[in-house]
Design goal:
This protein is an alpha/beta fold. It has 3 domains: 171 residues, Glycogen Phosphorylase B (Rossmann fold, 3-Layer(aba) Sandwich), CATH 3.40.50; 71 residues, no CATH class; 180 residues, 3-Layer(aba) Sandwich (Rossmann fold). Helices cover 46% and strands 14% of the residues. The chain is built from 18 helices and 13 strands. It has a 7-stranded parallel beta sheet with strand order 3-2-1-4-5-6-7. Strands 10-9-8-11-12-13 form a 6-stranded parallel beta sheet, sandwiched between helices. Helix 7 packs parallel to helix 9, helix 11 crosses helix 16 and helix 14 crosses helix 17. It is globular, with a radius of gyration of 24 Å. The N and C termini lie close together (9 Å). The relative contact order is 0.10.
């Protein structure tokens, strides 16, 4: 079977839980061929992979959203678009439920426009923005609204106008633009469509937009509604929707995904891989590990603030931030400046490392994300018998505290952004070796019972076979 995996901004350009999940899925299923269809914001990343592609990857299709900068168009043309096409684009931007995706695809892929800029520089597009301005009814400069809508719709047009490789099954690993590519694939080729939602993409974009300086306050609602509209398209079109834990399923149902489509398949790790790792050195140092990319959504700044408090109470504590730092360079520099301004001495940014060479030497791990799905970093720590301090995001609470009141804790859950509570939890574990060992044992037993890689792979193998027949 040929399976097309559709990803956005992750594999094979950056490391992380979703990328590792994709690599594992392909590696463990050599009986299938895989096509990677990846949507990437920056053409400079094209061909710069951080993963060695498995031999059963037969094609990589890279869609660069900034490709439009090389296009040329003539301002002010009139294409005389049918009223239903104009209505459809207004519905897309305004979040109207009358949106017809089939009509949208047919319009944007038609020969009417030579390229993306042709449409965005047309009088027809100007008419659309004027209609939306009437609906928004904000006393805002028309020019600001025009360029805001331009920024919203441009990546969608670039994505929709690209050709999709033919496959027996299309599998999206998020909603958003990747999800739209999947809906388009089903429209063009009539093959089954599967969605695995690790985190809730539209919720993550909402959090980013609320905090973003680049989106003016009046336009935040417009952006947020737009991303929910994109998600609703694949919820409607997908044959099956896979999520990782029960709370995500509840959110998807709240957002309009039919409950009967959704099934839960947790992530998994090979517990045996963590059995013989290097042990914690008996040298009096308390080592805290963070298996995490240095990006804003992981909230490394809160982690730094927390450790600054830990270091004052536990002078022999060390924090190792183990993950790539080149994805958001400005944010990484801000983190370094924060370390310096707080006068923290014992923080090491290791860059990307082989986790198995480090995690065994840690006394505990920490995760301070503001959004997660089911983080592989937590599963890896539990598989190695390490207690975890994590924020209450995604499935972290379920992983660390279990599903029932009788389950023994495998770590401590803290509020998002609350660096004092996180520091308090870390200090508690630093001072209590017996507690660390008890929580580590509980985590190991939970992973061994409920989160095995072999089970996760078998369930997807069966799912592929049932859909791809």
């Amino acid at each position: 079977m040929k399976i097309c995996l559709i990803a956005e901004g992750s594999y094979p350009y950056v490391t992380g839980g979703v990328s590792t999940w994709i690599q594992t899925l392909m590696t463990e299923m050599p009986e299938h061929e895989f096509v990677i269809y990846v949507i990437n914001a920056d053409s400079k990343r094209k061909g710069r992979y951080v993963y060695e592609l498995p031999p059963n990857v037969v094609e990589v299709k890279e869609v660069c959203l900034d490709s439009y900068v090389m296009e040329k168009g003539k301002w002010g043309r009139r294409f005389q678009l049918p009223q239903e096409d104009l209505d459809n684009i207004v519905a897309l931007i305004s979040g109207d439920e009358t949106l017809n995706w089939e009509g949208m695809f047919n319009l944007l892929r038609s020969g009417v426009f030579e390229n993306t800029i042709d449409f965005l520089s047309s009088k027809d597009y100007l008419d659309i923005v004027e209609r939306i301005a009437e609906r928004v009814n904000h006393p805002l400069p028309f020019n600001d609204l025009f360029w805001t809508i331009n920024s919203m719709i441009l990546p969608l047009i670039v994505t929709v106008r690209e050709e999709l490789p033919e496959a027996d099954l299309y599998h999206c690993v998020s909603t958003g633009y990747a999800g739209i590519a999947g809906v388009l694939a089903k429209h063009l080729h009539g093959k089954p469509l599967l969605l695995t939602e690790h985190g809730i993409y539209s919720r993550e974009r909402e959090e980013e937009i609320i905090k973003a300086d680049w989106v003016k306050g009046e336009f935040k609602e417009l952006w947020i509604r737009y991303f929910y509209t994109l998600s609703s398209a694949i919820y409607a079109a997908a044959d099956e929707v896979i999520t990782l834990f029960h709370r995500n399923k509840e959110i998807e149902v709240e957002m309009g995904c039919p409950e009967e489509k959704i099934r839960i398949i947790p992530n998994g790790v090979d517990v045996g891989e963590y059995a013989e790792l290097p042990a914690v050195p008996d040298d009096g140092t308390i080592r805290i590990g963070a298996i995490v990319r240095v990006v804003a959504i992981k909230d490394i700044k809160t982690m730094i603030h927390s450790f600054a408090l830990v270091e004052k109470e536990i002078p022999n504590a060390e924090l190792y931030i183990m993950g790539s730092a080149d994805e958001e360079n400005i944010y990484y520099e801000e983190c370094l400046q924060l370390v310096s301004s707080l006068g923290v001495n014992n923080i090491s940014f290791t860059g990307q490392v082989n986790v198995s060479e480090y995690i065994g030497k840690m006394d505990m791990t920490v995760l301070t994300s503001i959004s997660e799905g089911q983080p592989l970093a937590v599963l890896e720590a539990m598989a190695n018998g390490k207690p975890v301090v994590a924020t209450n995001v995604g499935s972290c609470k379920e992983l660390l505290l279990g599903k029932t009141d009788d389950d023994e804790p495998a770590g401590i859950i803290c509020p998002v952004l609350h660096y004092e509570k996180i520091a308090e939890a870390l200090i508690t574990l630093c001072r209590n070796r017996e507690l660390r060992e008890a929580m580590g044992k509980s985590g190991y037993e939970r992973v061994s019972q409920f989160y095995r890689k072999s089970v996760f792979i078998d369930k997807y193998r069966t799912l592929y076979q049932s859909l791809g027949r």
